[in-house]
Amino acid sequence: MDSENASSKVYKMIEGKILTREWLPGTKITSENNMATELNVSRVSVREAIEKLVGLGVLVKKRGEGTYINELAPSNYLNNLLPMIMLDTDGLIDIIEFRMMVEEGMARQFAEKATDEELAVLKQCFHKMKDQPNNPKAFYEADFEFHMTIAQGSKNPLIMKVMKLMTELLIHHQKVVHDMLGPEGGVRDHQRLIEAFEEKDGDMAALLMRKHLARTLQEIREKL
């Protein structure tokens, strides 16, 4: 195994332990020696992977103590260089609450300002979601595209810039929500949103978007 592949193997192992919540923020990770033995790679490869994750802010080295999973504030997730593997439950709730405040207005503006072409794109996204209930990646990517189309159709340049800035975060957010809740509620809610958009009913669209995100928030809290 070459050094690049060995370093990638270490990186993915650390990523996996974070994703499975085996290593939570504040956890001291396995020593370089133990990791090298466990994965049958050199210490150099282990060190390369660790240094990369330190540079990304996922890990932090404490002199004389070892290497730890970093503690992160929700605002850190806006750094597109930071892997979304660090998104924890509190961060997930913060994102949904943020989306409730922003996307309610987005939905109202879309209903009132969107073109027929933008509505057609929205319907395409919905059909991708509806037709791919057993394909999680296709589903959450179509879900993300659905909401980004609403941002674009709102015709507000600040909203569009903010949503684009948060692209990586929102894609991962959609993945986590899908993994936790499945596709059923999302399909039903998005169908109702499209009906409001077709009627150009801004108030109803805003209400339905808020109900969609409030339901998502409630179901996630029930999973805790």
From TrEMBL:
Q: Which PROSITE patterns match?
A: HTH_GNTR (PS50949)
Q: Which keywords accompany this UniProt record?
A: DNA-binding, Transcription, Transcription regulation
- Residues forming the HTH gntR-type domain are 4-72
Asked if the Swiss-Prot or TrEMBL record annotates the protein with the keyword Transcription, the reply is yes
- Which Pfam family is one of those matched by this entry? GntR
- InterPro entries attached to this UniProt entry: GntR_C, TF_FadR/GntR_C, Tscrpt_reg_HTH_GntR, WH-like_DNA-bd_sf, WH_DNA-bd_sf
Query: Per the database entry, which stretches of residues form a coiled coil?
Result: none
**Which named protein is this?**
FadR/GntR family transcriptional regulator
Q: Name the species this protein comes from.
A: Marinicrinis sediminis
